Amino acid sequence: MSSSARRLLILDDDPGVVDFLRESLEEKGYETVGLSSPHEALARVRLEEFDLVITDIEMPEMRGTELLTAIHEVKPNQLVLFITAFGSIESAVAAVKAGACDFVTKPFKIEVLLLAIERALRERQMRREIVRLRTALPTESPGDLVARSPAMRKLLDIARRAARSDATVLLTGETGTGKSCLARFIHDTSSRRDAPFTQLNCAALPTNLIESELFGVKRGAFTDAREDRVGLFVSAGEGTLFLDEVGELPLETQAKLLHALETGRVRSVGATAEVAVRARVIAATNQPLETLLREGQFRPDLYYRLNVIRLEVPPLRERREDVVPLADLFLSRANDRHSREVLGLSAAAMKRLASYSWPGNVRELANLIERAVALSEHDTLLPEDLDFPQKDDEVAALLMTGAEKGVPLEEIERAYIRRVIEAHGGNKAAAARVLGIDRRTLHRKVEG
């Protein structure tokens, strides 16, 4: 391994030892910083990046094991190599168990120390490559989807079967759950995989443009129609047309979409003739279409035409086994996007991810990890790197989600009680005290 640009911090209470090690290692191409004070060394580690810290284990100002603990509090993955006298081998072994990468015993030849340094740096590089490649290896989770949880494995199994047919698919679920990823998975698994996958967010366009986008427009049909343009039904060819937020379509456009689905033909805005289309349609909504039906905002005939195969994408809080694998996936992508080398998440950070309620679902997790990777000063993400909303914001998000989806008060209450239990580490007695109810009442409300 080339020692080029490898930066080492050398610490020993004997300045003569420090000078000797610096001179020997710099001759081998390493960049070194030499110190005799553990407190000064800890301050430098906080502010600067070192590939390896080499320190004596027995120092009057601070023991090396204490320094190791202090270093790992600020940089959990900092490599630390101990130099120890023969009588302190037991302490050195204990330090390795506590997180040091290796130790060498005095007296030693410089070649022995060099081998230990190279081994430590090589093993760290291998761990980084493992982290980098982990999400690139084939797994049970295809594409952008992670399916460690039983709920997602069942969903993907049904999606694979749906891909074998040409039936219309309706994807439902909260915002940010990954409905567009599932639509892409169905397309990529189907016989249409080599044809285009075309998508339209029905909520992103004004009403007067949706029809021309879907069905095409003839030159002169309206003021800005300066040339003929085919719509997405035609440009999708024999592929898949994914209509996201289909519940946002105006009623007039719903009627034309129903006609296209029933006849396999569309008419461009301003045209007199229809053309045949062969695209398979997958629609998605985060709104309960049944509510829109009752309110007269969605056509019953279109609802039944779309609702041939219905797949409900579960919210992230109901598939907690997927949270950490998803975080790994987003971390790897954020590393590539921001040219960072964050190795992973600390155990405490993973525990925090697993206990959060995720009102914004997978999209919220992706944004949180990307922000953490972009701003973190560590090579491992710590809880303080994760910018979770304040508790008041979590409660507001829960209430907002409930209001938008028309969730009954009883379910909102149950979700809030579960959140309080999670916040108290599963301690139901403590949660009951905070809520001002007895444990029997808490159990009844949670179990419904």
Describe the fold and architecture.
A five-stranded parallel β-sheet has the order 2-1-3-4-5, sandwiched between helices. It is elongated, with a radius of gyration of 30 Å. Helix 3 (64-74) packs parallel to helix 4 (89-98), helix 6 packs across helix 7 and helix 17 crosses helix 18. Mean pLDDT is 84; it is low at 129-142. Helix content is 49%, strand content 13%. It is an alpha/beta fold. It is built from 19 helices and 16 strands. The protein folds into three domains: 7-134, Rossmann fold (3-Layer(aba) Sandwich), CATH 3.40.50.2300; 150-314, Rossmann fold, CATH 3.40.50; 342-447, no CATH class.
Describe the secondary structure blueprint for this structure.
Elements: E1 7-11, H1 15-27, E2 31-35, H2 38-47, E3 52-56, H3 64-74, E4 80-84, H4 89-98, E5 102-105, H5 110-134, H6 150-163, E6 169-172, H7 179-189, E7 197-201, H8 207-215, E8 216-217, E9 229-230, H9 232-235, E10 240-244, H10 251-263, E11 265-266, E12 275-276, E13 280-285, H11 289-294, H12 300-306, E14 309-312, H13 323-338, E15 344-345, H14 347-355, H15 361-375, E16 380-381, H16 391-405, H17 409-423, H18 428-435, H19 439-447
Parallel strand pairs: 1-2, 1-3, 3-4, 4-5, 6-13, 6-14, 7-10, 10-13, 15-16
Antiparallel strand pairs: 8-9, 11-12
Helix pairs in contact: 2-3, 3-4, 6-7, 13-15, 16-17, 17-18, 17-19, 18-19
